[in-house]
Amino acid sequence: MTDMAKIREKLKNRNIHIISHAHSDYAWTHYRQWHIERYILIINEVLDIMKENPEFTWMMDNENHMLAPFLRYCPHRLEEFKQRAFEGRLEITNGTISLVRSTQVGDETFIRNIILGKRFFKKLLPDMEINVYNNMDVAIGHSQLPQLLKLGGYTGFWGWRPQGALDYKGIPRQFVWKGLDGAPITCIRGFYGGLCRMDYLEKDFDKEWAAIATAFYHNELEKINDNSCVPDLLIVQGMDDSRPLRDYTDKPSKILDFIEAWNQKEDCKLSFITVSGYFNRIAVQPLPEIEGVLDACDVEINTPSKGEKGLWRMRQELDRLLLKAETLWAFAAFYGERYPEARLEELWRMLLGISGHATEFTLDSDFEELYSKALAAKYHAEELIRQAKYLLTMKLTCSDRKQYVIYNTVSWERKEIIPLHIVQPAGGKKYKLADSSGRDVPYQICNTFKGDVPYQGAEFDEMDILAEVTVPGMGYNSLYIVEENVKGKRVDFGLDGVDIDFKIKGASSQTVDTGEIKVIFKEGSIFCVMDKEGRIVYDKKTGRPVPGSIRFTKVRHHEEMAWFFFKHYQGVAHFVPVHYRWEEYGPLRWKYVTEGFAGVQKIRQEIALSKGSKHIDFNTDIECMESRTGFFSAEFPMDNGSKITADIPFGIEERDIANEPYGQLSEDLFENIERYWEGVFTARSWVDYGLGGKRNSLVSENCGHYFMLDEDNESISIILTRVINNEESKDWVRHSHPYNKCAGKHNFKYSLFVHGEDDGLMDVTRFSRELAAKLEPEAVIGGNPEGRYLPDKLSILDIKSESAVVSAFYNEDNRYILRIYEAKGIESKIEVKSAVTMDTVAPVDFNGNIVKRGSVDFSENKSSFSTILKPWEIINLQVCILT
Questions:
Q1: Helix axis angle, 3-10 relative to 209-216, nearest 10°?
Q2: Model-level pTM?
Q3: For an engineered disulfide with 528, which of 228, 310, 520, 610 has Cβ 3.0 to 4.6 Å away?
Q4: 51-67, pLDDT tens digit by residue?
């Protein structure tokens, strides 16, 4: 049998469908201006072709990258654009603001991308239904994605990466994906490029048809056909920034002539189709169901770069700031303040403007523009937080005592040790703190300040303290300062006069007992960790890596593909402590400071423990002194073979990293390009694993989303940042921003949480949320006591649940949105009591449409409601209050 005969046999009863599109990046290998003009050219050419060819269809997927330039510079063709969309030939998938990575942006950033994007396209194209989410050029995503997409109004999902690993695992190209909660969504997967290298079409269609058809099959169809479970095969015509009906070099192709010839000569038909049209065809066919985790690793090239100057860090900070601003303003709006909806929406759009999947490697001036936009958004978000706290605080009843109000934007009560800066403009003496119930609040003095004037009777003008506070969920509590002579320890800066039983300077080993864990320090590092009962969790004498130790791994620089990561290690520089000392020593917090080097890189690390806590907190400053390509990581010991669990947006997943397929899986170098860095995988903010027979979690506060398993070294690490020396590159990376070199100082914060039990993951989830939503203090300063009516302690939304986590609380079109998810994998009841009277509560999707689910039960006085949360359920409640 000839090769052509075999191909015809394989394609028997098949249908071949073509989707034409151009994958758009905000900027990749070119400056943004090139992309702007390129995308204007592409859309104009698409419209021109559609005039002449009524069969031609084309797809685009977001506003910010591609459509925005066309709308700005080509308003004269807007009606024509709308007409082609109305005809169903020009299709919008996603319908989002930017094409984002679902695992690399904040949970709410991902949702707002859908909400604001669909709102934009509904206004532009009111008759278009956008029901397919097209996840091009990014990882296929986490196992809560099916539920999120269903809530976003999507019925189909098109993913791609990692194609090689998923083929290797036997995941078909068409299937139904059931996520954590069991929500199903119809999925297809495959490369977004195709029909872009078509030299074989230059042959004579009549004389050399077999050679043409054979080349077409092997180049475009073979892998798709081998991995498909339905007779409808889907291929793409297009590539990055590709012009319609041209190859990747812009050479006009003969694709239309080829389609015509194929349909004349072959039995299986070849034709253009829309994405929704393809999903409609496979939706009526039996598809296999795949449950749970599809991709545990994500894409290695997305590991953080540029240190704290990376856009990844700005996205993280802005998502958290905007959520806090929204919650505080929603509180304020409960009591009559006007909610700044338009201003907050603009800030979300600014965040989405820096969240596109191909922005981290934008070239120098483009990156500078994006980073400036991020800084501006950060300032305005922080200003909104300050304004909301002020407005709320001015409604509190006040006394003649100095008062601070502490705001909590998570849904559970928190007992924490927080920093406060105490200011005494008339001069201060010793004092005590009391809470709203009059109970004494323990505190620890860290630093005192005096200006250049020795004010009469003043021991200090300002003071940094740590205070142990308890604050109700979604509410606030007050602290009062009462000046008096206070007995007890005074811990000043530099530890002068500290009454402890050993000499700090020159001490070789010391033990701290928080009441939950015990830690022994010795010669600049952690020597031993024990649980509450004194059982050893870690002992340095075993030779295993020191918890939190910094490593700089040198990597061979690739002159032509520096953005990519080949695992070509050239040595590891380990942190070596040189100086170490106690900077704080109880009674609320102990801080051990160690300074030294990893190679020539200067390292300063603060290791802190707090009273009553199970976590060891690391605050690490890295001063990058040389421009060697490589990466920084913080290493922690682990038990090989122990179960690994990671958090994801709105849930958790178990990970079998040791058995994931890494490296090159076929002759095609790019087939598994996402996984050349062995052991690297992604998590939202924490990874849980075994150590010393106990469960421990490595929790990020301000680091990226990537971790690394190294069984040879019996360790798990959090990747802090890549370092890339642009000057060694010979390709476009040479023109990327010099922040790639990470010159200067960069800060990273993370914790080791020793919870010890498998069921402690809810505690870890809450701890990670607390790190992302720090308690917010506000001083009460003067003001007219008239008109102040709020008590000095209040839970504005009192939420009772064993396992519920509030994801967001904000106002939208005079309705409040309360987004909650079940975080433990159990069915549980949630009760919500409001400080103001509610009118209605309705479950809705992200687009405001009523959804069917279990009942929401109101109390008679409409001050509270309850409902049942299913395991891992995300519930979106629209709440109206009575004014």
A1: 50
A2: 0.95
A3: 520
A4: 999 999 999 989 999 99
